[in-house]
Amino acid sequence: MKIKKILIANRGEIAVRVIKSARAMGIKTVALYADDDAKLPHVWMADEAHCLGTGTLKETYLNQAKILEVAKSTKADAIHPGYGFLSENAGFCEAVEKAGLIFIGPTAEAIRLMGDKIGSKIAVEKYNVPMIPGYHGSNQDGAFLSGEAKRIGFPVLIKASAGGGGKGMRIVHAESEFLEALASAKSEAAKAFSNDAVLIEKYVTEPRHIEVQVMSDTHGQHFHLFERECSIQRRYQKVIEETPAPRLSAETQKAICQTAVEIAKGINYRGAGTVEFIMGADQKFYFLEMNTRLQVEHPITEMVTGFDLVGLQIQVASGEKLNLKQVDIRQNGHAIECRICAEDPDNGFLPTVGTIKKIGTATLKDVRLDCGYVDGSVVGVNYDPMLAKLIAWAPTREEAINKMLVALDEVVFAGLKSNRDYLRRLLRHSDFKAGKTHTHFIPDHGESLKPLPAESKEFAVHVAAYLLAGTKPAASSDGVATTNPWTSLSGLRN
Amino acid sequence: MKIKKILIANRGEIAVRVIKSARAMGIKTVALYADDDAKLPHVWMADEAHCLGTGTLKETYLNQAKILEVAKSTKADAIHPGYGFLSENAGFCEAVEKAGLIFIGPTAEAIRLMGDKIGSKIAVEKYNVPMIPGYHGSNQDGAFLSGEAKRIGFPVLIKASAGGGGKGMRIVHAESEFLEALASAKSEAAKAFSNDAVLIEKYVTEPRHIEVQVMSDTHGQHFHLFERECSIQRRYQKVIEETPAPRLSAETQKAICQTAVEIAKGINYRGAGTVEFIMGADQKFYFLEMNTRLQVEHPITEMVTGFDLVGLQIQVASGEKLNLKQVDIRQNGHAIECRICAEDPDNGFLPTVGTIKKIGTATLKDVRLDCGYVDGSVVGVNYDPMLAKLIAWAPTREEAINKMLVALDEVVFAGLKSNRDYLRRLLRHSDFKAGKTHTHFIPDHGESLKPLPAESKEFAVHVAAYLLAGTKPAASSDGVATTNPWTSLSGLRN
Amino acid sequence: MKRNLLLNQTAVSVDVNAISAEKVSFEWAGSSHSFELIQRSGDTVVLRDAQGVQHRLQVTSGLVSGCGLDAEIADVTAGAKKKAAVLGGLNAPMPGKVFKVLVKTGEAVIKGQTLLVLEAMKMEHAIKADKDGKVRKILFKEGDLVQGGMALAELE
Amino acid sequence: MKRNLLLNQTAVSVDVNAISAEKVSFEWAGSSHSFELIQRSGDTVVLRDAQGVQHRLQVTSGLVSGCGLDAEIADVTAGAKKKAAVLGGLNAPMPGKVFKVLVKTGEAVIKGQTLLVLEAMKMEHAIKADKDGKVRKILFKEGDLVQGGMALAELE
């Protein structure tokens, strides 16, 4: 069925992202927004927009009944869930399909299967997928789990079965710490997922997070679009992603991509998905989980392969047979994504809030900014602190890093503290440049990622710009300017 | 030799374009500017900028002595000439190399050979290049040329031997008009090129302008990067270009690209070049000329092949051997370029002037704006009326057209009359959509390219926006608003 | 309330039934229209029509762009002047330099005869007599710079 | 002329030798610097140093960005206040909601004991006693919203 109108059950950058692909394909869009998001651009970039009222997420972006009501009243024929929110909610998928609409995503069955960390591992084991040593069973007794941890060998990782995003996750280095960590993980899991079941795994040291993008149509075709390395993380959340993964042998790349395709084929997957693996220094990789949705970091795959992943999702959801051959999907050049977040990396990465006074513009070729805010947007505490994704492509990794450094200079987010300067420090770090990426990169390099001291000669030009940007200072008796130096610039803005 | 600093002997968008590639490669740049260009962004985007003073082009951008002086004083090790100006000046190329600097372009020999329309045809004939029937000899006697025209058969085309850009070009339909047209063409040629020699050619009806991008290194490797169709022209100048060329058979594409490579190989070419062909409805193509420089429309080739042509130029100029195989250069998807010009298409395409109050921003993926102006820039009569190049890529031609239409909506050039609306009419024309492109498209479709009458229902939303954007009208006695409706918007700009 | 507008250099009139900061309804091209202003962000305004469909337009310096069309709009009665150059005849079709003056004051000319040659954007443009007559005045000399729309010569 | 600045939340001082609308020279980090302002375009300023090299920076709302570095600069003596939250101790490290209060006024606590749990951005943060002592005051109750930097409790 040809899709003519898509309702987007999401907000911010991913809603804008879906609108862009739909516009390019001539498909109409319906946006949703909670009251406090009424001024965000996804609202007015869509062809129609409907308010979800005010309240908790359950009353707004997670309110399935209301969302389906809007979909019906606007005569949308498909719903795109974006990522987060209802994107991996099997019940929602079913409700959408029961209402006679197309869910732009996998089947409810696949979501349900992969949404359970224990069930998913049992399911994929039969496709010869390498598994990390661990306990994924249903016995949740503390003493039993402690025994399993000892059997696997410390350090071990405790993870929420239903979880994601680092919630309900603990690393335990010794038996003596195990029970306390277990209780804490279970409490966090119960709160976040209404399910306190956990699993225990061998904790790989200097591990790398490597994931593979898959895309399946409803005609039995399953493709991969190569891997992404997402090892640079803080608080268990990705902050820099890149593709191809550095230091990956051609054989390992082939094997990991093929493993992901086997999983998609095995579970008869539909649409876009990501199979996540953990990889040790020996290039051995183990299945971690499968995300049954579009990933935040999908743009880097688009940059190296030339495909529009949202466009492909829509084609698949329309029932089209993808006119593709695996051999025609190529990985060209190198792409890096930086997540620009409202947070203070020099203060424990704690989130910051405020009004975005100005968003800068990237000028170089093959640099892309995916952003759901505009100048004047207010960033509050109710949603994710990610402000935007900055993506740079170049023929080589070295050039892509250079280009990203230029782009980070250009794309300011003035008005609130962000991690832009910290991202530049990461990119300039000799170990990052050398491709020595692993998930402990940030904590392990704490000292060498510190900011430059304020009184450094490198800041001379910034001080000069500050002084010169000011109106000619009307010196007060103590020789200090009394006028606000910034107002003089407003007249220059065109 | 590794190039560390490039002086750019040009202005506007192409200077900005070279700066961008250089920045991404970590190479410093030196910009030049005439006094009236001091506020253009190429001046401040470079690492250094030097003024060429005021006066005619000969005193500024064509002032070889001054340019070389700046190159020496700034310790630049290479000069990029852009397009136009000194880019196809063999003498300048020699002077640059004599000064011990690298000329980012072909050898003086190649420029000289291809710069002469007669000499170039004689030179390439030996590589089995199909030639259009014509007279390319040195006998410039009127009666003799008239006889040649008769022999070739009317209609014929008179062209300046040293020319380009439509200067000194005349179509002659009958013998009786020949001598007058010849005199006029010769006078224009003498003025433009200090050389009144002309050549005569068979005039192909419904002809298409198809050109092939070539790239040669100094290690004997000669590549093509596929063709571009540039048939949509007004005043003999391209206004819309695209790649791949529509309605081109795979065999013709292969043959025309191979022919271009043979020419590059035959004359042992260096760097980026474009071989232009004229093609009839029978898909027979004839050599037109070779442009020994980067073309205005090079971005569409970059979009479909993924290469940075300026980057490749710099690599070649550095003496690098390009790490490429012809078979690895692929044409992926479809790209279209629109040249946004300060001109009035509904008034004979006459140039317009003014101050750019606002340049819009393209938001869709794979849309690129190459522009040498910023908000507030003044467009005068001294330079080319091209304001910017808007380039859109999509998997198919139809989608690329759709995307370009969205982008043209977004990328406003407010403050002066431009051809944006006319470009949309061209793209929406049923014959253009059907790929029925030829160089007479614009004159042949004059009526169907007319603007919508002012009182059309499609303008209702524009009228509403105009009315609502105004401050609440303070009605005067005759019921008409007396306040300027636009001032109220300035407070909303962030 | 009638509003007289210049839309793409053509005088049109629109009958506004009601207007507030957020809503407008009016008669246009033979039918009634009503729109709601739901967003202003920078130069972008978003209107919602009676069917709930949103239309994004940019409004800058009298140019209203969007929905695939450009409309240059000015409120004529508010003092806006028709800025378009009076073209054709003996006016400069664009800004440029007088390259050649081919006739003298008092000279008899025939329709189509070239009177002056203007040079602009590196191209030549012949200014030709629009009727048979006698040159009353040549208003510029060779090398003079002229604005688009300026009268260059007068015939009698 | 001395200017006292707050640069990335650190107090620094710069000795300005000369300043005009186009040029500035000053002492910084132990050496002399002089820059010329050659361009302003929107928020972008372009400075030329004594060697002729141009530096592009964006100056917006107290953020000076460019040349690979961010500098948040404020002129302290001109009335700008140090806005950074006073972190650590018993202050809220970020804006959020008081999720749990684990101690009562008058209760004796030991260094490292969790006093309150703050919830923000869907994560929990324990506010721990920075010394042994007695709870003088708990300034918020469960469910209260707090700003980053606000004091949450007092120990004596």
3D structure, described in words:
The complex is a heterotetramer, with two copies of chain A (494 residues) and two copies of chain C (156 residues). Chain A is of the alpha+beta class and 494 residues long. Chain A is 32% helix and 23% strand. Chain A is built from 17 helices and 23 strands. In chain A, α4 packs antiparallel against α5. The longest helix of chain A has 17 residues, at 250-266. Chain C has 156 residues and is an all-beta fold. Chain C is 0% helix and 57% strand. Chain C is built from no helices and 15 strands. In chain C, the strands form three sheets. Chain C has an eight-stranded antiparallel β-barrel with strand order 1-2-3-4-5-6-7-8. In chain C, β11 and β12 (123-128) form a beta hairpin. Chains in contact: A-B, A-C, A-D, B-C, B-D. The interface between A and D is large, with 61 and 65 residues.
How many helices of chain C? The count is 0
Give the integer mean of the pLDDT values of chain A.
91
* Alpha-carbon Rg of chain C, integer: 23 Å
Q: State the distance separating the first and last CA atoms of chain A.
A: 46 Å
Order of adjacent strands in the largest pleated sheet of chain A: 14-13-10-11-12-15-22-20
Report the order of strands and helices of chain C.
EEEEEEEEEEEEEEE
- What spatial form of chain A do the alpha-carbon principal axes imply? globular
Considering residues with a beta carbon less than 8 A from a beta carbon on another chain, report the largest interface and each chain's count. A-D, 61 and 65 residues
State the total count of DSSP E strands of chain A. Answer: 23
User: What fraction strand of chain C?
Assistant: over 45%
**Segments of chain C where pLDDT lies below 50 for 5+ residues?**
79-88
Q: What is the topology, as strand order, of the major beta sheet of chain C?
A: 1-2-3-4-5-6-7-8
- Oligomer type: heterotetramer
The major beta sheet of chain C can be summarized as: 8 strands, antiparallel, barrel
* Share of residues in helices of chain C: under 10%
The total beta strand count of chain C reads 15
Q: Proportion of β residues of chain A?
A: 15-25%
Helix content of chain A: 25-40%
What structural category characterises the helix and strand content of chain A?
A: alpha+beta
Q: What's the rounded overall pLDDT mean of chain C?
A: 83
In whole angstroms, how far apart are the ends of chain C?
A: 45 Å
